[in-house]
Design a protein that fits this description.
By secondary structure, the protein is α/β, with parallel strands linked by helices. The chain has eleven helices and eight strands. Helix 9 links the parallel strand 6 and strand 7. The structure holds 3-methyl-2-oxobutanoic acid. 3-methyl-2-oxobutanoic acid binds next to strand 6.
């Protein structure tokens, strides 16, 4: 089984094959996702909410991410492992970001690190990439900024905000990011950005025209006890097992059946 790399994902974008991604935080689920054929596994700091029960991702530490990433890495043979850099682990300086990313890769088995934010993070992205650390950028609804955004709200709805996200996406690519997550933005904006960029875009609440899709595992299996976002779908409802639900998700993403219009957002 050939492991997925950032080059594999770029080639998938080139030939128009949708990239599938789900989050995982432990060995058993990571192994299930890998066996089912998911292309990317994201060790998201959403673990602060779905594993630890916090209201936000802000309390998650680098030590938490190293622990969960290492558990995931033990279960994976094929999928690319993307691990989140948690709040306060990279914003201070490129050197600080490098030290945190190094721990996630060396101790946590991360193959790509993900960080939130646009132009102000460009110097850190470049610093990591120039030192051999692949980066996934994350724009739109960036949950680590929930208090600044005033809640978990759709981003980029008006022309100015949309232009800002489009600009930041280009800046992230130019800084060397290998991937871009677009969260909770209008579908038309995500489509334009996906066409603008050479690097793959991975959408969550960003419509069907991103190069790939990601969901939080606990949302798509209906395990999270609190309300799930409108852009998610419970694939367990029509499945006989978690494995069947994950396979249904992969089929739906690859065929373009998920996300549907009911999972997306419009501009104002
Ligand atoms: O924290 C997370 O799980 C994420 C993805 C869902 C994009 O950032």
């Amino acid at each position: 089984m050939k492991p997925v790399t950032v080059s594999t994902l770029r080639e998938m974008k080139r030939r128009g094959e949708k990239i599938t991604c789900l989050t995982a935080y432990d060995y058993s689920f990571a192994n299930l996702l890998d066996r089912a054929g998911v292309d990317m596994i994201m060790v998201g700091d959403s673990l602060g909410m779905v594993m630890q029960g916090h209201d936000t991702t802000l309390p998650v530490s680098v030590a938490d991410m190293v622990y969960h990433s290492r558990c995931v890495a033990r279960g994976v043979e094929r999928a690319l492992i993307v691990t989140d850099m948690p709040f306060m682990s990279y914003q201070e300086s490129p050197q600080h970001a490098f030290a945190s990313a190094g721990r996630l890769m060396q101790k946590g088995g991360a193959q790509v690190v993900k960080l939130e934010g646009g132009e102000p993070m460009a110097a850190s992205v470049r610093f990591l990439v120039e030192r051999g650390i692949p980066v996934c950028a994350h724009l739109g609804l960036t949950p680590q900024s929930v208090h600044q955004l005033g809640g978990y709200r759709v981003q980029g709805r008006d022309v100015t905000a949309a232009e800002r996200i489009r600009h930041d996406a280009k800046v992230m690519q130019d800084a060397g990011a290998s991937l871009l997550v677009l969260e909770a933005v209008p579908s038309a904006l995500a489509k334009t950005i996906s066409m603008d960029l050479e690097i793959p875009t991975i959408g969550i609440g960003a419509g069907p025209d991103c190069d790939g899709q990601v969901l939080v595992l606990h949302d798509m299996l209906g395990l999270y006890p609190r309300p799930s976002p409108k852009f998610s779908k419970n694939f367990m409802q029509d499945a006989a097992s978690p494995e069947a639900a994950v396979k249904a998700y992969i089929t739906a993403v690859k065929s373009g059946a998920f996300p549907g219009p009911e999972h997306g957002f419009h501009a104002t």
